[in-house]
Amino acid sequence: MKYVGIDLAGSATxxxxxxxxxxxxxxxxxxxxxxxxxLAAIQKSGTRIVAIDAPLALPxxxxxxxxxxxxxxxxxxCDKVLTRMRIKFFPITIGPMRLLTARGIRIAxxxxxxxxxxxxxxxxxxQDILGIPRKQHDLHGLQEGLKRLGCIGxxxxxxxxxxxxxxxxxxxxxxxxxxxxxAIGDPSEIMMILPRx
Length: 197
Description:
The chain is of the alpha/beta class and 197 residues long. It has one domain (2-195): Nucleotidyltransferase, domain 5, CATH 3.30.420. It has helices at 35-45, 77-84, 95-113, 123-130, 139-148, 161-178, and strands at residues 2-7, 16-22, 26-32, 49-53, 117-121, 152-153, 181-186, 190-195.
């Protein structure tokens, strides 16, 4: 069984990290751009489970990301749980997060039509829970931390922050597939999937 983690960029002009991980924690990483490239990489992997670093649902009571939705909720139940866990994140309705949210929902819908299960995750939260640095704080420390967790394969070469975040997402996809994970939020919106230590 293989699992895929995606560190999605808000725009196709920016790099999206993709990681395929197997049962032995062997990782294969790459950088993709367009939706088409991302979807092709997922299909080629043969996975049935993908974990994406992007908001995949809007807050209940909010039907769009447009300006005319001002005054509507900005936070989902899973976002509020992250706050209580003291895990820092960006709200889905600010600036570039709107593009990322729209793209995440679009890709998740395409994967659903391909019968590939898609879950939302957050590598920053994953790294906080696992006790390893975030990429913006210590890129080398993040890579070494993923090695200590048992990752092998491409982890031995110099990887970008996007690829390392994709590995963090792939680890969550694997835990989800094995039924050993933390789910936070409200099922009527979306459950964010995080690792259990």
